Amino acid sequence: MVRQSDNNNREKQVLSGSLMQVELLAGQALSAAHLRVWSDIVDNNPELDSPFFRPEFTQLMSQLRNRVEVAIIRNAYQIVGFFPFRRVSPVVGQSVGGRLSGAEGIICREGIEVSLEELLDRIQLSSWDFEQVPANQSQFAPYAFSETMSHYIDLSEGYETYCDRKKDSGSKRIIKLNSLARKLEREQGPVEFQFHDDRLETLDKLIELKSQQFHDTHHTDVFNFDWTRNLLLDLQETDHPKLRGRLSTLSVGGQPIAISYALQSQHVLHGWFTTFDPNYSRYSPGSILILKIAEAAGEAGITRFDLGPGEQLFKQTLKSGSTFVCGGSLSNDPMRRWIKWGLHETKEWISHSPARFTLDVLRPIKGWFDMK
Length: 372
What we know:
CATH architecture of the largest domain: 3-Layer(aba) Sandwich
CATH class of the largest domain: Alpha Beta
Strand content: 25-35%
CATH topology of the largest domain: Aminopeptidase
């Protein structure tokens, strides 16, 4: 069956039944031809410009983690889409990067959607859990439990235009950060910015500072797992034109005081991990670094700097705008969906109740299972 879906005022062809063929392969079994088609799909669909939708990301994840699979979707024997996932149990899946995925969903040619519940049946999953599916993949909306804002800096017309628009909106944050940067240099000595710092010791410093932050905030330390460090290291060392890691630093006296690791596709930079030395917090070094990254990214041809969801000050004050992302569980079992929704609502209630300290105990346990 083929029906039409109205999404963002555009008609989409929705595939199901005999017109949708699905082939399931291990992530490492994708051929060069598969990767070329995948790359062509994301290159020609602006809704898939996030680096997390690149075939190279799934390819790398399949080398670092087990049970990574890809559903290849065809219409009349022509490949029209890919659905990468990791099978965390025989019938439950998640995105290939788990909690490290800054964007999740299905990769389809522009104008194509698939029957999601039928796809689950074809790949023998009862559910696929997600946290950051872009709202433009509206076929996931019936399975979403939550919706949040993901923030970005618009560099499509250059860094100066971005700054002018922030000023015109009444924001004085950029002026304040430039003043703090000058104060930092006066009081602490010469300040150096590197858009790409390839030193291994810098990556180790990022991991050290971020791990301490995870510990202090009772979150799972994602760097307790070997594959996460190897992922960042492999991406940092590659010079692939369409997917690479970018480690940026703000240093005083040769020592980094703020470090940010971002994932970069051809025209999009996605901020992944940002941290700073708390001894310099009065200068807002993390925010200064983000601003300098935005300037360098604009000069390098980046059109959007994704900051991700969150209430951090630098995101709220430096963003150009926000888009919706949703979290939930894709399932063709109404009872399973109801249970998952109930667990989500219970967690939300606890987080706003006097019993919220229990989440500090339970959160790292769940995170460990998600990451292992």
